[in-house]
TrEMBL record:
This is Lantibiotic ABC transporter. Pfam families: BtrH_N, DUF4872. Residues 155-324 form the DUF4872 domain. Coiled coil: none annotated.
């Protein structure tokens, strides 16, 4: 049995930033969730579809764990990552730091966690673990999932061992802050510019502003894409607004990050970016509502209207990132 003392078990909106917050507060660094997300250059866009998928997927952030790597690099944190194919070694990788009084981050499949009421496979889920006993592991998850929670050790082992899209091989990690930590304020502009560059210059048409434009063209046909449009459209809307995104497909988080930055840095480019992402966040929530309405009513006109908003969103976000790239 081990229980790390003094853990701040505050749950946030998004899983990876929640876990990062727990680990960093234990190191004496307390940053807001929008600041964690923004310093990790977390914002992105992905339109993902293939013949093997039952329905398209819209992603609003960088791939799992990239945010953590970005944040550690930005702040000069010591990020120690361990992966293994051995369940026995995987447990040792977690128990050792916990026994030494240090919380651990885990990437796993949320399907196997006891406290998850909606059983859906998602291999990119991240939690912070701060203790264990003979039967249970003690975790911090998002506020909507309960914040401080527990799950059986057997279920945790299955969650860590699961294989499939976005999974990792029993990935665990710790963060250590050096004595001379890079001031977060000094890393704001590089983090924003890095995010803007990736968004404006995506390597394929499914990413960034090009991905939003591609979605605008395909979304009006989503009812034809589905065997069960009522269920698939409702789920797509839910994932955009409720599934750990902070609302508006992570745009609320980035809007709030830019607002916090504008209090620290006097820049017209930053103010322009914030204003445009405020508009974008509102538009994304409207898109989600139209997709949900299309599922409920069966009226394809809602998807046509959502597609029109996405054309506008591609322009708004492109202009926002162009302004931010000039910082």
């Amino acid at each position: 049995m081990a229980m790390v003392k003094g853990i701040d078990v505050r749950g946030m909106q998004h899983c990876e930033t929640t876990a990062l917050g727990v680990l960093l507060r234990h190191e004496g660094l307390d940053l807001s969730e929008p600041m964690l997300f923004g310093l990790g250059s977390g914002l992105s866009f992905l339109y993902w579809d293939s013949k093997s998928m039952g329905f398209p997927f819209l992603g609003g952030r960088v791939k799992p764990f990239e945010l953590t790597r970005n944040l550690a690099a930005a702040l000069g944190l010591d990020l120690l990552v361990k992966e293994t194919t051995s369940p026995r070694k995987a447990w040792q990788n977690v128990a050792a730091p916990l026994d030494a009084g240090r919380p651990v981050g885990l990437q796993l499949d949320s399907y196997h966690l006891d406290y998850f009421s909606t059983k859906v496979h998602f291999g990119g889920h991240v939690v912070a673990m701060y203790g264990y006993d003979e039967q249970d592991a003690y975790l911090v998850d998002t506020a909507p999932q309960g914040g401080a929670v527990s799950t059986g050790l057997a279920g945790l082992a299955r969650a860590r061992a699961e294989r499939g899209p976005m999974t990792a091989k029993h990935r665990s990690f710790t963060l250590t802050a050096p004595g001379s930590l890079t001031p977060p304020q000094d890393r704001i502009i590089p983090a924003i510019k890095s995010c803007a560059d990736a968004f404006l210059n995506p390597p394929i048409a499914n990413l960034g502003h090009r991905g939003i434009e591609k979605t605008a063209k395909h979304l009006p046909k989503w009812r034809e894409r589905s065997d069960n449009p009522r269920e698939d459209l409702a789920r797509a809307a839910l994932l955009m607004e409720k599934a750990g995104t902070g609302g508006a497909l992570f745009r609320n988080l980035y809007r709030d990050f830019l607002a916090e930055c504008a209090q620290l840095i006097d820049s017209s480019h930053l103010r322009t970016g914030h204003s445009l992402y405020t508009e974008a966040a509102t538009l994304w929530t409207q898109v989600a509502a139209l997709i949900a309405a299309a599922g409920e009513s069966g009226d394809a006109e809602n998807l046509t209207r959502a597609g029109s908003l996405l054309h506008e969103l591609s322009r708004v976000e492109r202009e926002a990132m162009q302004a931010l790239s000039m910082l």
